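ok here's the first one, seq then struct tokens
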Amino acid sequence: MKTETTQIHRIIQELQAGWLAGSGAQFAAAFAPQARFVAFDGATLTGPSEIANRHQRAFDSHLQGTALDLHIEEIRLVAPGVWLAWTKGGITKANGSVVERTNESVQLFVFREQGGLVVIEAFQNTRLRPVTDSQSAEVWRQFDQLWRNRGR
């Protein structure tokens, strides 16, 4: 298991390196051919090609000059050859300063051993915005209303 957890740490470092390089292909390289990627906004991508293309467009525009800062909170073996990894982090400017505090998120990775290598089978990213009181609930309701009314 030590070898696999080392591979998981390396894969997450490679994701961050691909992001910093602004390379969608490098970012998506560790995803399995049928991997599912659920972005913070609910967009669902399937496979490395789709993941790479979507990220490349973002790296070439609104994510240009940013870095991905992830911290592993836990890695758990859940079945032979299958691991879950929970991370927390967000986007920073390449120099390390925070782009915006509201982008802190939690992530869940599903890793699977495939031919002696560990690959990402699934990924879910969720913005960290808990509803803890009536004010935060109202913010969520207002955003949902704005989203429903966009483009009308």
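and now the second one, same deal
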Amino acid sequence: MARPAPLPRTLFSTAYSRQWTPAGLRMLRSRGGFIDGELDIFRSLIRNEQAVHSDDLCVAAGPLVLLSDGDEIDYSRQGRGLTVIPRDGSVLRCSARGVLVTESSVIALRLAEMELWKRFRMLLVSSRGLPHPQTRSLLRRLQDQFRLPIYLLADNDTWGYFIFSVLKRGTLAPGASDPKRALKDVRFLGVRAGDFAELGEERCLLRWEALWDSRLAAMSRYPCFRSRSWKAEFRRFREQNGKAEIAALRVWHDRRRASEYLSRKLTSGEWLT
């Protein structure tokens, strides 16, 4: 199958093109990673706006009750798994103390199977990668209606940081913002730079790639990353000299360790805003 044509210099590519060199962009396209990945995101967004059902649907578990097509759906009584959020669902009740959003559907499923959302009284939501409009709209409704903080669990890499910015800014377009979907209270819970070393899991680190320097430089100019704490996080991430995926942590294979990790993060305020 022929490779899809690159996006025009609008939306996703423009902001990056201003800051990355032509050689860097050619390298990205040759790797078929970041730029071509954005094409997949764009296609998914089009399907979402056209109400074409796909595997990009939002899934959740926890103390939430929705009304859809006349039926009440209680997400605390759907077994040890994740249930799809219907597109036409309206929020009836939510007794959660916060919303735990996971980038990885694998981690979300493990947390649901462990039923850790019950201990922390959290609504568990999987963004399944980049949070799509349906997910961001649901999170905005929950925050507006119930004043819930949004906690994010994502990979310790530039993509995980970018997902935080998408929730904070409300749009996938780099550097832009969408007030209708932007979230005021988003807390980056992890995985943060240094967490893998503290847990004795340095083996999970993947070698540093030169293009990540360009991504960090670009994101450091976003308003949501201009605080001292975020600058320190970016510095530690660079000094770490590698990235790691949250699913690689062995902590998620043990309910006690997973509970301790989340408890430490939540109770000590070890998050970035």
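notes on #2: The domain at 97-268 is CATH 3.40.1360.10 (Dna Topoisomerase Vi A Subunit; Chain: A, domain 2). Residues 220 and 226 are 6 Å apart (CA to CA).
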